[in-house]
Design goal:
Its EC number is 3.1.3.11. Its cofactor is Mg(2+). InterPro entries: FBPase_C_dom, FBPase_class-1, FBPase_N, FBPtase, Fructose_bisphosphatase_AS. With 334 residues, the protein is of the alpha+beta class. Helix content is 30%, strand content 24%. It is built from 8 helices and 15 strands. Strands 4-3-5-6-7-8-9-10 form an 8-stranded mixed β-sheet, with helices on both faces. Helix 1 runs antiparallel to helix 2 and helix 5 crosses helix 8. The protein binds 2,5-anhydro-1,6-di-O-phosphono-D-mannitol and magnesium ion.
């Protein structure tokens, strides 16, 4: 009989990959799973329960928050806080990081960075959205207050990262640095089951995802790259297909499964692009690399960028390795 591994079983089975594992990371991943189920439940009912629309406030980036943004943030914060596995949390929706200091957090070793609901412009129109998370071990000693330096670590220090994609199915995809695995939620049973083991980008991709409406603002290298992907070259499968949803999680997920490249470059109006290094670029970069892909700002490996502030942005080019390298070539020529 076919064996259906649940996410819970998989997390426990793979705990042994960590020589230092004391079960805390596993417990933390289980808490993210639990919060993900709660957010999923809200999203599925959003149209019925008057939680679509704007919350009437702005987040730290000056973007208006949707009610579900606020709700997803509250669910993740309270679930992760109540279970005691982390000593701090930073969220795209909160101005400052949170420090947890109750007795249950005394020995907590980890901090979490989260984009509770990514692609929120798509919520009200029933298009896929996601949650992105990134986990680091704290730098400051256990038992002390978490500090900014615990949050401003480069992506290559991530212990785990992943996302939930609330699409035609809800899937949780994560890595702990030992490959990427995806688990599809069965709402009838209430469990996630391993459906996408050891995900790798296919060797060749021919999809590109970029907001071409910003074309005039892009750097010369990106403009030339976009023209190149649109040129006819049968041997190289060009022109590529364009697919862009406005939800990073959806575009990344499709590109990872089918092959493709996602670009959110810097523009004249946004000198470092739009995406946030800590909540969006780093976790996706970790997943991409673990799936055999690559993530770059056009010149440097995303995961080597030293963050200077919590809500810092970075230009982001991510996908099949060869595709990203081609885009870098165009950037570096200019
Ligand atoms: P958000 O976190 O406020 O939802 O913004 C991030 C989103 C990404 O998911 C998406 O790829 C991008 O912003 C779309 O931006 P644009 O509408 O400028 O193309
Ligand atoms: Mg986002």
């Amino acid at each position: 009989m076919e064996r259906h591994t649940t996410l819970g079983e998989f997390i426990i089975e793979n705990q042994k990959d960590f020589p230092y594992a004391k079960g805390e990371l596993s417990a933390l991943l289980s808490s993210i799973k639990l919060a993900g189920k709660m957010v999923n439940e809200k999203i599925n009912k959003a149209g019925l329960s008057q939680i679509l629309g704007k919350a009437g406030q702005e987040n730290i980036q000056g973007e208006s928050q949707a009610k579900l943004d606020v709700m997803a943030n509250e669910i993740f914060v309270s679930t992760l806080r109540n279970r005691g596995e982390i000593c701090g949390l930073a969220s795209e929706e909160l101005e400052d990081y949170l420090v947890f200091e109750d007795d249950i957090h005394k020995n907590a070793e980890y901090i979490v960075l989260i984009d509770p609901l990514d692609g929120s412009s798509n919520i009200d129109v029933d298009i896929t959205v996601g949650t992105i998370f990134s986990i680091y071990r704290r730098i400051t000693p256990k038992g002390t207050k978490a500090e900014l330096m615990d949050f401003l670590q480069p992506g290559n220090k991530q212990v785990a990262a992943g996302y939930l994609i609330y699409g035609t199915s809800t899937i949780l995809v994560y890595t702990t640095g030992n490959g990427v695995n995806g688990f599809t939620f069965d709402p009838g049973i209430g469990s996630f089951f391993l459906s996408h083991p050891d995900i790798k980008f296919p060797p060749v991709g021919n999809t590109y995802s970029v907001n071409e409406g910003n074309y005039v603002h892009f750097p010369q290298g990106i403009k030339k790259y976009i023209k190149w992907v649109q040129e006819l070259n049968e041997e190289e499968n060009r022109p590529f297909t364009s697919r862009y949803t406005g939800s990073l999680v959806a575009d990344f997920h499709r590109n990872m499964l089918l092959g493709g490249i996602y670009l959110y470059p810097q523009g004249t109006t946004a000198p470092k692009g739009k995406l946030r290094l800590l909540y969006e670029c780093n976790p996706m970069a970790f997943l991409a690399e673990q799936a055999g892909g690559k993530a770059s700002d056009g010149f440097r490996r995303i995961m080597e960028l030293q963050p200077e502030e919590l809500h810092e942005r970075a230009p982001f080019i991510c996908g099949n390795k060869e595709m990203v390298e081609k885009a870098e070539e165009f950037m570096q020529k200019e």
